[in-house]
Amino acid sequence: MNLKFPIALLLLCAACVQSQEVVVVPVGKGSYASQPPDPSKEVKAVFERPLYTLDDKRALPTNGWWTNLLVDKFAGQLWAFPHQIKANENGIEFAYPVKWNDEGRDPISDGPLKISGADFKPQDARAKTWGDWTLTFRQAENADKYWDVTIGRGIPYVWLECKNLAPLIQSAIDAKFFDAQNAAIKFPYSGDQIGIEYAGRNYGIYTPDNTLFVLEGDKVKIQFAAGKSYLVLCPLPNKASLSAFGKYAYAIPRDSKMNWLYQPEKAQVTTGWHLTTEALKGTEKNSIQGFLPHHWRDTIHNLKFENIGYRTPRGDMKCAIGTDFRIIYGFNGVPPFLPAPQKTGLPHDFDAARMNDYLARYATREKYGGDTYWGGKSLLQLGQYMMAAQATGDPSLDKLRALLKTALTDWFSYTPGEKAHYFARYDKWKALVGFNTSYGSEAYNDHQFHYGYFTTSAALLGFLDPQWLKDYGPMARLVAKEYANWERDEEFPFL
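Below the sequence we write its predicted structure tokens.
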């Protein structure tokens, strides 16, 4: 590795963690540990894992379509749809699936275009910046030789911004090349776009003006004129669309943001989608953006679909042109608990005595699970039994409420030396992890439903014990933000 290369490999090691004092961090009347006090080998493995990012200040998302990039040296498969990108030690592979596996559930990524650089050997792939559905990652050989790759969910283009690189596009020896008039190209060719017909697919290649395209065997070498150096790739629905897709190929997204407004009185959630774009050439800043069936089916929206579409595992993706889009969903809310059952006069009717027996026996329990999965289930069960007792006026209510209060207070408080029932901070990742962990939760598996148990049970207790909610609500809020952060802060990753 070039030691002058300014990108430091981010390493979190257990030795570093253990060299610092574990302190109690107060949150309301609750608290958490500043770091895991007694990390297991699984926790140490998380800390010792290298992180492939150029931004060590941002909270790192762990459940996104691209976030394997953060822990995989060359990113693995990144499904942006309608295409897939795979980074490797030579560059990237750009796949556009047109058929599916035998089970019909996954597209097959055969016949990719292989994009490399003349004498280019990237060390790895690192996240540079990201929005809500867009990503830019860098593949660098050193500080003066790299490209930045930008992709986005539902956006058909892939942008490569090059520094001191001459890209090579490899397809196959029998590939055909065409221009905007659908005429065959004779190499060497000078211009700002060419089409490639290869493996039953058509691609558009877009570049700055006066770029020289040279065919060498099964590779097209791209030589930029003086000025900007970038390459844009795009799967085309057909050969005739090369020029039409070229109109929007130069509007590179620099950020993407989704926001929402919930109006209970209208039973609606309005979502807004915004792309911040930069025109690499010309003045066109609108982009082609795809939307899946759950965006446009049975919703109110302003999506003006062009005659552009792609297939995805979630159905047909229709494409609109612009930078701002709005979708309105109907939402009537979710009942937090069920009302008291009533007698109906039907067979096997509700039996109040039987319900009383169930509640009374459950209220004799004093133990609850020691990890965030089974322990979380214990909390939610307690909350559900408590609300059933409240709805039916059952005498077990006070005992069930006290049991849930004891358990949640235990979980939401860290006491030095305790072995379970607490949360600890992963500061470098900007995360909060419950201990004991289970089913891989120390490495971010399934936080959304482990901690959802805590959020729901805390809300149920808060219905009946406002003082407890005032005291421990701030800690409950922190646990909820860990997996579903609705605020754009750097305490946790957004959403």
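The first helix runs from residue 14 to 19.
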